Structures are given as structure tokens and as C-alpha cells.
Amino acid sequence: MPSRPDAASPVRDRIRAEIRRQRAARPTEQQLADDRLRDTRVLALVSELLGDQGRDAIVACYLSRSGEPGTADLVAALADTHRVLVPKLTTYDRGRPRREPDWTWFEGPDHLVEGVLGIPDPVGPGLGSRVLGEAKIVIAAALCAGGDGSRMGTGGGWFDRALVHRRAGVPVIALLNDDEIRTVPQEPHDQPVDWLVTPTRTIRTSVARAAD
């Protein structure tokens, strides 16, 4: 049962502040090493989940900003074998990403520019929020997530609004560091995740198991 927003928000704010401090303190060398280990696990999981669908399968993946589990190499590797959707945030609302999600095709690192809040932004035309319904897997950003499927983002709610457009049963993978696995109180708009991937662990959440 989701927690009431007025009860959950202070706890979530404290967790967000803690994890942001942890990420800011993590040495660059450690971040890069963790990214490599995590990428290997994600690619193996994607291959397992998609089976023989191969190049016909569409994967959606966030574009990481500084401090987040990195996806630059991951998105490029995915694009070698799949069509990849990435978030498009170039339409602003008072200097921040617009609330309505948008996606476009990943065309390579040369087709990215620095966007709002330091998030890489693709230069291709937006395809709208509903295109996420074509994806077979969604790789989502998160500050932390739990084995129960609970997920907490940075607070803007972009991915929660985006995930309502995915097809029923499509798995959502959250990328985390090892110290960011924790159950978090949920609010009514929060969307659960099916898999957690860290540099050392690949975890199927109880939400995903319950759907079997």
C-alpha cells in the first residue's frame, strides 16, 4: 500500500540527500569501474530477457548525467544490437525539463548536446510519450530502489510519468550502486521496477515475481 504523500515525503527527502552526498563523494575511478561492471550485467540481463528478438527489439534507456550510474557506454553497446529510445528534454518549462515525457532514437554520441540540468539531450525530433509503448525493456534512472520494487528518482517525477506509457508486462530495470538498494516509502504516482542492477548484483524484485 503506497504511503500517504505527507508521510512519505520527509523520509524520501532525507534519503535523497544522503544518496546525493554518497554519489558526490564517490571517486571518479570507482564510478568508471562500477559502470563497466554494471554494464556487463545489464547487457547480459537484456539478452536473457529478450531472447531471440534481437535487432527487432526496442530498448529504452536514460542518458546519465554526472554522478549517476553511467549509461554512455551502455547505450552505445545496446545500439549495436537494438534500436534504442532515449529521453528528449529540450522543451523547457521555466528552465526545467517539461513535465510531459518525450523520447527519440539514439543516433550516437555525436548527436547529443548538453541539456538542462546537465542531462545529455538528443538532437533528433521528439516522437512523443506513447512511443515508449514500443519498447520491450525500459532502463530507468533511480536514486535508490528496493527488492520490493519500490523506486525513488530525483524528485521531478519524469520517469514515473513516462512509465505509464509502457506496455503491460514490459520489465523496468533500475541501475544503482551497491549501497543504494533500500526499500523506500512510495507515493501514489510511483511506478515500481522489476529488476535492480548494481556492479555486483542482479536482483529480480518481488513485484516481478508476483507477476509470474
UniProtKB/TrEMBL annotation:
Coiled coil: none annotated. It comes from the Bacteria. Substrate binds at L63, E68. InterPro entries: FTHF_cligase (IPR002698), FTHF_cligase-like_sf (IPR024185), NagB/RpiA_transferase-like (IPR037171). Gene3D superfamilies: NagB/RpiA/CoA transferase-like. This is 5-formyltetrahydrofolate cyclo-ligase. It comes from Brooklawnia propionicigenes. The lineage of its organism: Bacteria, Bacillati, Actinomycetota, Actinomycetes, Propionibacteriales.
